Model the fold of this input.
Amino acid sequence: MHLFNTEFGIYAGTALVAAFALGAIIHAVRGAGGTAALRRGLATGLVTLVSMMLARLATWACLAMLGGEDQSAALAGWLFGLWPGLIDTAALLLAGKSVLGPEGLMWFATIVGTLSGFFDGLWATHNFKGLGWLSLPLDTTWGLSGTTNGVLLHLVNFAWADHADEPQRGVHRYRQGFRFKSGFAFTQGAVMSGMDGHPPDTPLHDHEHLHVWQNRWFGPFFTISYLGWMAIMLLPALLIPKSGVNAFLRVEWLAYYNNPWELWAYSRGGYRDANHAMAWSVAKTLAFAVPFFCLVIAALVIAVLLVV
Done:
């Protein structure tokens, strides 16, 4: 398990050149003059390189602390990527051997960091003045699991979803793009999708922007607890009837609207009908959320202790 080796050096050099060239070409096509296009290309290349190295370093450090075995790679995959954790856990349960392992996970993180850095550099996403500089390292280290899904959202949206040109705001806003339901937006990592009509400083933008920082502040705990809440609430939503509320709405309210992360975000903006028959108050949400979050933390601590 090597942090830096010849293969990584060749990859990093190639990625730097490719990001510079693509960044310069894209900005030239968008109307930037020759010198401006080259500057934007250079910035794209440098941000790509920094993001790639931070993602690789964070994953290497996590694996080193956990022991660097297949089980460690599966746990680190859950914490810093989600999908590799799911893949390796399934492989360990079914075949007794991981698919990615430590080396594969490091390369997975390296590629995610590369793609995230490319899109960040291309759109000049980060403001490196004041505390704004924290957004990039948080996205590519502690918040890497959300950033992984953000990269997937970029790849789905990039060619057609109309990325807003809003530099140095710390987020990506696609006016169109993937979303689960009409009238709703969808945010993963620092990528907002389906945000037409919701520019900065509007209620829905404030809602989605908070999700971006929830991922940066709470990292893997945010991702795992958000999904865990949805999974736990699915069964009672399907089995416990509520007068005048069909099963779909019961799932939507218990798993989504009453999710403590969403309740927090709705306090910043967006519409949630507090008078709905399924709506929980803040007090009721906290009464369920506090023990739930304690269980998630305990499960994570036990998982770490089992593999160290």
Summary: The first strand starts at residue 172 and ends at 173. The beta strands are 172-173, 186-188, 191-193. The first helix runs from residue 6 to 29.
